[in-house]
Specification:
Blueprint: H1 11-23, H2 26-29, H3 32-48, H4 50-61, H5 65-85, E1 92-95, E2 100-108, E3 111-115, H6 121-134, E4 138-142, H7 149-152, H8 154-159, E5 168-170, H9 175-184, E6 190-193, H10 197-208, E7 213-216, H11 227-230, H12 233-238, E8 240-248
Length: 251
């Protein structure tokens, strides 16, 4: 049974997606509160269509409708979590040996390429891209190669949730091919890869040539339904870089 068709993305599609992401640079300068409100709206709109998305997951993966519904419910909760963290993951104050106060402020990395996990096609996709977006990054995402329709359906929700164009760009196709293009792209500032061990090595190797920040899983399995594996501060930390501001003071 034919469920749908998706494009086989290539280097040109990645180039266009990266250009669109750079054009959406205003997302990085938006306040954490403003980004949070957009993500809350996104979660609410996904929840309103939960039965439709659950049916899509069941049709793609062959799981039961109940399991599909559980994945959608977990996806909504994950967006809510990062919406709440968008304006709460902030900096720290450090006392130094000199007469200064040092403010360590997290900032977005910029344009990020994210190779999403193949399993849990909706939850894995959102668990990977939403923390990066919540911190002000713009994302070029490669969804599950086996079940990409769960991710491309999210475009319809983005269009009704005030997410600015270019903030999230989805390129479907062969993950290893597109991962290599993203790792070598000079205008991509960071890359996440959730796949097998050989792909992780390739991403780290190719990213080193252009000093791109990389975060890979080295083939280790994550249970995306488990919040201890699929969400948390580690994702927010990897989605940000720290700017230190030194403030001198007198006696």
């Amino acid at each position: 049974m034919l469920l749908g068709e998706v494009g086989d993305g290539n280097r040109k599609d990645i180039r266009n997606a990266v250009e669109a992401a750079h054009a959406a640079r205003g997302w990085a300068s938006a306040t954490g509160h403003a980004r949070a409100q957009v993500l809350y709206f996104l979660a609410e709109n996904l929840a309103a269509r939960s039965a439709e998305f659950a049916g899509r997951i069941a049709g793609l993966t062959g799981c039961s409708p109940e399991d599909g519904q559980r994945e959608v419910d977990a996806s909504v909760e994950r967006i809510f979590y990062y919406a709440a963290m968008a304006d709460k993951y902030d900096g720290h104050v450090h006392h130094t040996v000199l007469r200064n106060v040092t403010l360590a402020m997290p900032e977005p990395i910029g344009v990020m390429g994210i190779i999403c996990p193949n399993e849990s096609p909706l939850l894995g996709f959102l668990s990977a891209v939403i923390p990066a977006i919540a911190m002000g990054n713009r994302v070029v995402a490669v969804p599950s190669e086996s079940f990409p329709l769960s991710a491309t359906d999210v475009y319809q929700v983005l269009d009704t949730s005030d997410v600015p164009g270019g903030v999230l760009n989805i390129v479907t196709g062969k993950q290893e091919v597109l991962a290599k293009v993203l790792a070598n792209h000079l205008d991509v500032d960071g890359i996440w890869y959730f796949g097998h061990q050989a792909g992780s090595r390739m991403v780290e190797h190719d990213s080193a040539g252009n000093m791109k920040r990389a975060w890979v899983n080295h083939g280790r399995y994550r249970d995306w339904m488990n919040p201890a594996h699929g969400q948390g501060e580690a994702f927010l930390r990897q989605a940000t870089q720290v700017k230190n501001i030194w403030i001198p003071y007198g006696e």
